[in-house]
Each structure stands twice: as C-alpha cells, then as structure tokens.
Amino acid sequence: MKGSNYDYKTDAFSTKQYREVDHVYEPDFDKIEEEFVQKLWHGQRFFNANLISIDGKDIRVLKPGVWNKEDGPDFLHAEIEINGKLLVGDIEIHVKSSEWYAHKHHLNSRYNRVVLHVVLYGDDFNLRTRLQNGKRISTLELLKWIDAPIGDLYDETTQAEEDASNFCRVTGNRLDLDNLKHVFNSLGTERFLEKADAVRLLRTRLNFEQILYEGIMEALGYSQNSKPLRELAQRVPFSEFDHKSEHETQAILFGVAGLLPSQLEKTLPAIETENPYIVALEKLWEVSELAKRTERMVASKWQFGRIRPNNHPVRRIVAMSQLIFRCKGSLMMYFLPTCEIAGNIDTSSMLRNIRNNLLDLLILEPTGYWETHSNFGKGGTKNAKLIGTDRALDILVNKILPVAYIWAVESESKQLQDAILKLYSDFTKMQENSIIRQVAKQVFNEAQPMRIIKPTAKTQQGIIRLYKNYCVDQLCDLCPIFENNCVLSTE
Prior knowledge:
The chain is of the alpha+beta class. The chain has helices spanning 34-42, 99-102, 150-166, 177-202, 208-220, 222-235, 246-257, 270-273, 276-287, 289-293, 313-327, 331-341, 348-362, 389-410, 414-426, 434-443, 457-471, 480-483, and strands spanning 6-7, 12-13, 51-52, 58-63, 66-67, 75-82, 85-96, 114-121, 128-130, 136-141. It folds into 3 domains: 19-157, no CATH class; 168-202 and 431-491, no CATH class; 206-426, no CATH class. Strands 3, 4, 5, 6, 7, 8, 9 and 10 form an 8-stranded mixed β-sheet that branches. A two-stranded antiparallel ribbon has the order 1-2.
C-alpha cells in the first residue's frame, strides 16, 4: 500500500489530503486573465445543455456573439434563450462576478444592452447583475459547466495562439518578389470586384446616392464607430438633406444620433451650452420634422474611449454634413466627373493629378466651432482636418470607386469602367493596418522586406484578401503564393 493514504494504526484511509465534498473551490485568480474566459466563451468550451444561471434560470446559447476587441461589452449581437425566451444583445465577460461592479459597468449606459453576464467564478452575493438603467440580468458561472479540466483548457488556448502565429509555410523562404507582387495585385483586383458586387446587390433596394452616403459614413467611423454611423445614415436618408443648410444638416444628424449637448448624460458647463453655435443647433433640431417622427439613437451605440480626438464621432458627423452641403444634392456627381477624365489619359503624371483632385474633394477643413473642438465642450484638435489624407484615400479606394464602377456598368460605359480600374491601380499605398502588418510578418523577411515590392493601395487590398480568404481559415494548400510559384526552391 506504499504511497496510499491508508492508516495502519486505525485501519482506515485518511481523508486529510482530500477536499471535503462541501468545500468551495476557488481557482488561483492571480493566474487567470479575462481574455482566457473570453476564449472559453468564444470557443463554447462548456456543456451547452441544462445550463443554469446563478439565479436559477435555464440558459441556452444560440449564438455567442461577435468578439469585440474595442471598448464596451466583450461580445456583441449574441442570441441567448433564458427560460425559453429569446434575448438578443451583448455579453460581458469577467473572471469573477464582483468585477462587474468593480469596473463600474453598473454606472455605464453602454452596458445596458448586455443580456447575460458570463463569469468563470461567482464570488458575489448578488444573484442578478444590475444595469445602469435599473434592469437586472442573469449571471452564468462557467466553472460549473466547462467541458475539460481548466488546466487543459488553458494549455489548449495558449497552444492555439502559438500555432496560429507560426503556421505559415511561406515564413522564412526566399521569394520571387516580382511574381509575388503580381499575385497580390491580382488578388487586389478580385477584392475590388468583390466590393463592386456588394454594391450591385445593394442596388436592388437603394439608389446610388444612398449607397455612397452610407458607405462614406461607415468608412468615417473606423472600426469603432463604423456600425453606428452607418445606422445613422439609414435612419436619416440622404434625401432628407435637400435644400438644407450645413447647420441644419448637422443639427439633424446630431439629434438623431443622440449626441447633442442637451441629449448627453453629462451636462456641459453653461459657458458651452450658451455658445451661439450650440444654441442655434439645439433650436434647429427642436423645429425639425425628424425630431418629431424619428427615434434617436442611444448613447450606448457609440464608442468614445481610446479614440483620438480627431476621430471622435461628433467630428465625423461634422465632416459628413460639410460634404453633404458641398456636393449640392448629389454625391455621385460630386466625384464622377473627375473619375471620367481618367478614361482619356495614359500617363502616370496625369493619373496622379486626377488622384490628387479626388482626394481634394474629400479632404475637409474645419470651420468655426470645430477649428478648436473635437467634441462639444472638448478641445484638442489644433485645426486638424475633418477628413485627412489617409482617411480620404481609404474612402476613395473602398467606397467611392466600387460604387462608381457599378454606375459605369449600369450605364454600359466600358470607357468609364476602364478609367475607374486604372485609377484604382494607380493609387499609392494606404495606411497600414493590423492585417497588412501580420502578412508582412508571415510572408516577408529581413532580407526581402515588404517595402521592396513598393506596395500600392491595390497591392494592399490583395494582401487583405489573401489573409481573409486563405490565412484565417489556414487554407495553406490553396495559397496563391504557392499556386503561382512565388516561393523559390531552397535546393
């Protein structure tokens, strides 16, 4: 019986080294991070049958939601059944249930759309979690339902991360750079035509003006506020701005967005609310027809944290209102004539002039109040442009040119189609994002860095397509880099 807990003196097994049945197990929280619990939820690493919340309600997870890497709830647009009732909303994740209050989510209206609080371990006496609006929601403790020992799950998620970052077969190989750039450019053309096809589908229910308006609004929001800005454009159609002044347009957009000073949770100082510009905006909104017949958006829709002052959604709405006023009733006719010129030229210098003219149409300067403000009552802009060069280039490549291309297709103008593709191929590189940096790390190397191929906007779009269509799903056997012999033999 060597190594056992048998006590020969008492002729019985000792229980001192075993946990009592009613002993409460507490993991070592110093070694567990919230991201680990998020991974458990994202991968649904628990038994999704007979789930019961801390307050005794039956839970069934239909859709875990979209993992949100920005401020706000951790998973968006989830679908949960609680006691047989379908709830659609957000999910907030914590290691311990008490962290909801420690993080002050109960005071933040952004979390009012949360339908379930998911924790690894329930350490709080509250059976239900309180929202800022006074409602209470259920809490689910995952520790009781996980489908493997917690140590194994930790090892699995850590290994998965390592595998995801090291799987690329191209890494470290010598490359045929000319061939590689050709592959990226071909993928870039595919991505452009894919975007054009998406516009074609939208044409079944929207006119060109509305499609372009929604697209520009979405692009102005970056990743943090692209969805609420598109929603704002859908709530206030482009046709609403006929014969409206720039300030009337601003008042309508701010009012429906719920971002006017009078609509905010935190009251501004009187010196701000009495500013003639703000007073005029409030009056214009008050007398507008939309104030009476349109439901405004809630503050929780918007992301404000970790956003540079120049990218604040309020400034983006100012930019859109200025663009709407400048286009004089037609966004399409604001950009198309310049695009059409490209069909009659063939020199790179003349194409560059057209490209710069298109950018000039989008690069907007602030006026009046917005020369010194990033938001109502907040400064920090130092006369920064409402739309800068990088954002203007992104809007042109991803929104304006695909819409213009479908316009040309519907108009049966082969010349305009060719002109738009020519412009698209000529645009210089855009600002790098995390996807481009990841592919650069995977594919290129110190001896052959990405800059050698002199990437253009089209090349970068091809890189993004490679990542989204092949790398994400690890479709290495179908990788165009190998299919087109871009990796040189090491023999």
